Amino acid sequence: MKKKAILFSCLTATTLCAVALLTSRLFPRSRLSEDGKTFLQYCGKGSNFVVPTGVEKIAPRAFRDCETLKTVVAPESVKKIGFSAFDCCAALETFDLPKGVEIIDDAAFCNCLSLKSVVIPESVEKIGKAAFDECLALKSFEVAKKNANYRSTDGVLFTKDAKTLVRYPSNAERERYVVPEGVETIDFKAFDGCSSLKTVVLPESVREIGLCAFDNCRSATEIVLPQTVRRIGSYAFYRCSSLKSIAIPEGVEIIGACAFEGSGLLEEIVIPKTVRKIGNYAFSACSSLTSATVSEGVVEIGDRAFWNCPSLTTVVIPESVVDIGTRAFEFCDALTIRAPKGSRAEQYALENNIPFEPIE
């Protein structure tokens, strides 16, 4: 029995080697796993490529940085497209997602600068974080009607229950977009890099604005937040360089790190009493910010929260603030802190040689 088992193993190994050798001859620009089921790496410099029949998985980074590829055709046997599989394929214009694909992993098509449209087939069960981030030519998403997990409305990608806005196409030709009622979460990088949008209106159903949700929306001048929002994630409005004003509604509990960093046209901000902590770097490098009012109820101002705001002349800080982080107001050379006498804010001003004005 042992001899038969050894013989069988040897024959199996020989068969797999033969398959691998044949594959390498038929597809000299690619590397596959021994069983031919995982596409490991594209090694060519052509503009078109057909993934071999029988491949079930496209491995992480398999096509990464293949800058000359314009068209890739994959067989219906493909079930998973791995992490960063097509990242930085800047010339990729066409990739028809196979009808059998189930998982599109994180950053799978990130930085595919020429990709114009995406059709999500019925079989897709999961689309990972930032799967289509920085696809700057992308105009629309289309989802098969029978897909049980996702849907598209007006070219925008949502979860099937329409409670999460997953991704807005970067190159959609709109200047104003009203998010549909019923959406509760603006997902990670949902609007990242949407350069045409000037106004976004969120409905009363929204409770959470996710990490990097509006990062680098450099044309956005107005984003209307509803009273229902409870959390503004880290980097949510990072690098919104044209954002002139935003009203943070009462009810918001968390303003994440770097939430408004680099929002260069923002002139004034009021932090409502429901916020407990202003995150690290939350308003740093807001070069036009002149006034900030922190409401009674806020407990902590994070490290470098208002770092490098050279136009900031007045900050009102209530007695409820007991913790002010390291260098919270560094490089705010025109600043006067206004706060109650005997407060932590007065002590901070004295410690850091910042002019202080007492208030009742």
Describe, in plain words, how this protein is organized in 3D.
The chain is mainly beta and 360 residues long. It has a domain of 116 residues: Leucine-rich repeat, LRR (right-handed beta-alpha superhelix) (Alpha-Beta Horseshoe). It has 2 helices and 29 strands. The protein has a 10-stranded mixed beta sheet, covered by helices on one side. A 6-stranded mixed beta sheet has the order 1-2-4-6-8-10. A 5-stranded parallel beta sheet has the order 22-24-26-28-29, covered by helices on one side. It starts with a helix and ends with a strand.
Summarize the structure.
By secondary structure, the chain is mainly beta. 9% of the residues lie in helices and 24% in strands.
Outline the secondary-structure elements.
Elements: H1 2-26, E1 30-32, E2 38-42, E3 48-50, E4 57-58, E5 71-73, E6 80-81, E7 94-96, E8 103-104, E9 117-120, E10 126-127, E11 140-143, E12 150-153, E13 156-159, E14 164-167, E15 176-178, E16 185-186, E17 199-201, E18 208-209, E19 222-224, E20 231-232, E21 254-255, E22 268-271, E23 277-278, E24 291-294, E25 300-301, E26 314-316, E27 323-324, E28 336-339, H2 344-351, E29 356-358
Parallel strand pairs: 2-4, 3-5, 4-6, 5-7, 6-8, 8-10, 9-11, 14-16, 15-17, 16-18, 17-19, 18-20, 20-21, 21-23, 22-24, 23-25, 24-26, 25-27, 26-28, 28-29
Antiparallel strand pairs: 1-2, 12-13, 13-14
- Classified by CATH, the class of the domain at 22-137 is Alpha Beta
| CATH evolutionary superfamily of the domain at 22-137 | Ribonuclease Inhibitor
Percent helix, as a range, is under 10%
Global Rg: 26 Å
Shape: elongated
The average pLDDT is: 92
Straight-line N-to-C gap: 92 Å
Q: Tell me about the largest β-sheet.
A: 10 strands, mixed
Assess the beta-strand content as a share of residues: 15-25%
**CATH fold call of the domain at 22-137:** Leucine-rich repeat, LRR (right-handed beta-alpha superhelix)
Which regions contain 5 or more consecutive residues with pLDDT less than 50?
Answer: 1-28
Label the structural class.
mainly beta
Q: How many helix segments? A: 2
CATH architecture of the domain at 22-137: Alpha-Beta Horseshoe
Strand order of the largest sheet: 12-13-14-16-18-20-21-23-25-27
Number of E strands: 29
